[in-house]
Amino acid sequence: MVGRVGDTPCVGAGGYADNDIGAISTTGHGESILKVNLARLTLFHIEQGKTVEEAADLSLGYMKSRVKGLGGLIVVSKTGDWVAKWTSTSMPWAAAKDGKLHFGIDPDDTAITDLP
Fold it and tell me: Which helix (H) or strand (E) segment is 15 a member of?
């Protein structure tokens, strides 16, 4: 769309990483993600002691209530804990850990397979 500004080029919105906290990539309604600085907000919650799952839920819930935005994220803590969460209907995602590939599209539909 003409004049559209998305979250991708904005550090802290579409993606963010900090060696002392973790890393995150977001997707969804870019303007909403940008308005709440979703990536940095999620890492802030982890920095304050929340688990990756709690941080994801808090941040996505805030975005939905504050600006009516839908989206998703994959976040990894500095210790390797990770979660994929979203508020949209579906979100294709994948993550690899300990020789296993975890992937899915719909809520409560996660598959795990061995990596070669």
Answer: strand 15-18
